[in-house]
Amino acid sequence: MIFGLIALMFLDTSINMAMQPFKMLVGDMVNEKQKGLAYSIQSFLCNAGSVVGFVFPFFFTAIGLANEAPKGVVPDSVIWSFYIGAAILILCVIYTTIKVKEWNPQEYAQYNPVEEVKDEGKADWFTLLKNAPRVFWQVGLVQFFCWAAFMYMWTYTNGSIASVCFGVDMTAADATSTAQYQTAGNWVGILFAVQAIGSVIWAAVLPQFKNRKVAYAVSLVLGGIGFATIPLFSNQYVQFIPFLLIGCAWAAMLAMPFTFVTNALQGYGHMGAYLGLFNGTICVPQIVAALVGGIILSLVGSVQSNMMIVAGVFLILGAVCVFNIKERAHA
């Protein structure tokens, strides 16, 4: 168990180190008017890759790799999914590092109207947080509810789908060892792929909204409805509907927060440091959600599918908080 937790920590850290600089590149290289579109394109590409990744276990099982394994052993279909996923991640990072040439501040200023940047000097993280623009904290509050919701999705979707659609008694001691549970796990991969497809489609829709806050809030409300309706559908194919709606929220979560924050940080300096700190609004909510998840689960009757309703409520609360975001007048 301890080894698994440490390995997961390194996996999460590695993925964040590989992906978050791409968020900063948009902030450094794209002007304010185009940032929403740029982050939507980034969201589109991320989710297009997710579609492929989520289908891997289902595909490998279909071609004959073992989908079941003794207790405490990972099935071959999952092992090879991670191998292929790791190879794709490494190749994409290498390609991006070689091909993308970041503008320096002088080049950016030559093609984009910018405010005079304050002297960055030296500052510790406490000073940076103390002087952060209000939007940083306002968007951070929205992030708290959003990432807590998705933490519960990643934790409880397998059990929810297994019980709701495949009749698995998740209170049984051997629930996770049954063939039905493994089948449900593969189907969850398909549902996550459907979610990614929904995100791809919605990422193309987001730039059409004239008001960014409305786009953000509507997306989270749709996702909240999706989460709340998961326990209602026993048909595994009808579950496509909730996960398409959840994909709308996911697309907005990948695009909108960084649009608001990078616009607010123009002229502040320390862009990279601030975005690194903003990454805490992704990690901290998940830590908090994990710590209190067991308590909340017991409060909702220890029924995993009820945690999907909790996740839906969190997204709705996040949507309400969106309207507390105060953008700069010219943004």
Description:
- By secondary structure, the protein is an all-alpha fold.
- It is 74% helix and 0% strand.
- It contains 12 helices and no strands.
- Helix 1 (2-29) packs antiparallel against helix 10 (271-278) and helix 2 (32-62) packs antiparallel against helix 9.
- The longest helix has 33 residues, at 134-166.
- The relative contact order is 0.16.
- The model has no long low-confidence stretch (mean pLDDT 82).
Topology of this structure?
Elements: H1 2-29, H2 32-62, H3 76-99, H4 105-111, H5 125-130, H6 134-166, H7 179-205, H8 212-229, H9 240-265, H10 271-278, H11 280-299, H12 306-322
Helix pairs in contact: 1-10, 2-3, 2-7, 2-9, 6-7, 6-9, 6-11, 6-12, 7-9, 8-9, 8-12
Tell me briefly what this model is:
With 331 residues, this protein is an all-alpha fold.
List keywords for this structure.
globular; 331 residues; mainly alpha; 0% strand
Q: Mean pLDDT, rounded to whole units?
A: 82
How many helical elements?
12
* Low-pLDDT runs: none
- Give the distance, in angstroms, between the N- and C-terminal Cα atoms: 48 Å
**Extended strand count:** 0
Query: Strand portion, in percent?
Result: under 5%
What structural class do helix, strand and pairing data support?
Answer: mainly alpha
State the major sheet.
none
H/E series, N to C?
HHHHHHHHHHHH
Shape: globular
Residues in helix, %: over 70%
Computed CA radius of gyration, to the nearest angstrom: 21 Å
